[in-house]
């Protein structure tokens, strides 16, 4: 696997499926003796819409049950610590895409937490989508290269999204609910200074419909949604030492009984819920 060096950055080039490259961070440390502080995967994005897009997202499949086979990497009840650069790099990528006249042809968007591979270090994906036509676009590739160049401070400037230098004791958004492209959470993350952790779309919060009993108070709702929230919260908190993780709920994406169950569980777990203005 060819590798390239620039200051403290190591770039690996490979021809395997990224989502099957488990524990690249551990393997690099074992091979070189160098500690890995974070992992950034540069990848191709696919979508049913085939729409051109530049995307950023955390990874994990925290909602899967033990024994389930993850379809695209990872393992059940797992999520990587989200890379603190996700929010700042999303905003930087939007700025670069605008300046390079890639928008509005390319949509710049966050995605919800999904897929593997397994890692221990804070991780994120940066992707070009959504078909081979756009994967080959040199202008899109140049935008991603510029994102890495500026984002990691390789241009001589300050790195973008360095939590340890810029973020301690600030608030972090943990998104719950909504579709795969998390529009209501993204509306908040567009604002300068907002930090973001995991983003759990509705499909990562399986909740069993209790039927006629759903009107009852203190309803017990089955499914792995509690597990998903707990894993997402714990790994987000680990990625942002000394930060305060607040949940932002996409209220319109839930039915009343679902929202009540989620809010009740968060209260039991002493996990705070924030409104949009809490993150600015």
Protein model, in words:
- With 280 residues, this protein is α/β, with parallel strands linked by helices.
- The protein has a single domain (3-269), classed as Aminopeptidase (3-Layer(aba) Sandwich), CATH 3.40.630.
- 29% of the residues lie in helices and 20% in strands.
- The chain is built from 8 helices and 11 strands.
- The strands form 4 sheets. A 4-stranded mixed sheet has the order 3-8-4-7. A 3-stranded parallel sheet has the order 10-9-11.
- This is D-aminoacyl-tRNA deacylase-like isoform X2.
- It comes from Nicotiana tabacum.
- InterPro entries: Deacylase_DtdA_archaea, DtdA.
- Counting structural domains, the number is 1
Q: What is the CATH C level class, in words?
A: Alpha Beta
Order of helices and strands: EEHEEEEHEEHHHEHEHEH
Low-confidence spans: none
CATH architecture: 3-Layer(aba) Sandwich
What structural category characterises the helix and strand content?
A: alpha/beta
- Strands of the largest sheet, in order across it? 3-8-4-7
- Based on Cα principal axes, name the global outline: globular
Number of helices: 8
């Amino acid at each position: 696997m060819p590798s390239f060096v620039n200051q403290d950055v190591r770039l690996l080039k490979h021809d395997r499926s990224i989502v099957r490259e488990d524990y690249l961070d551990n393997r690099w440390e074992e091979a070189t003796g160098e500690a890995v502080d974070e992992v950034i995967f540069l990848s191709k994005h696919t979508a049913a819409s085939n729409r051109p897009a530049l995307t950023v997202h955390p990874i994990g499949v925290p909602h899967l049950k033990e024994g389930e086979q993850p379809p695209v990497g990872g393992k059940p009840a797992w999520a990587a610590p989200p890379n603190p650069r996700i929010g700042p790099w999303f905003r930087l990528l939007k700025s670069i895409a605008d300046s390079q006249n890639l928008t509005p042809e390319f949509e710049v968007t966050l995605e919800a937490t999904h897929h593997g591979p397994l890692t221990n270090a804070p991780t994120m994906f940066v992707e070009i989508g959504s078909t081979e036509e756009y994967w080959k676009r040199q202008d899109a590739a140049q935008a991603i290269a510029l994102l890495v160049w500026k984002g990691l401070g390789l241009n001589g400037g300050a790195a973008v999204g360095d939590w340890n230098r810029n973020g301690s004791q600030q608030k972090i958004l943990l998104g719950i609910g909504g579709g795969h492209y998390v529009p209501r959470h993204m509306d908040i993350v567009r604002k300068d200074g907002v930090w973001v952790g995991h983003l759990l779309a509705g499909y990562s919060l399986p909740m069993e419909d209790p039927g006629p009993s759903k009107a009852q108070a203190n309803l017990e709702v089955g499914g792995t949604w509690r597990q998903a929230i707990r894993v997402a919260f714990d790994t987000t908190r680990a990625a942002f030492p000394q930060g305060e993780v607040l949940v932002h709920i996409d209220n319109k994406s839930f039915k009343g009984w679902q929202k009540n169950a989620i809010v009740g569980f968060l209260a039991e777990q002493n996990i705070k819920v924030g409104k949009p203005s809490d993150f600015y």
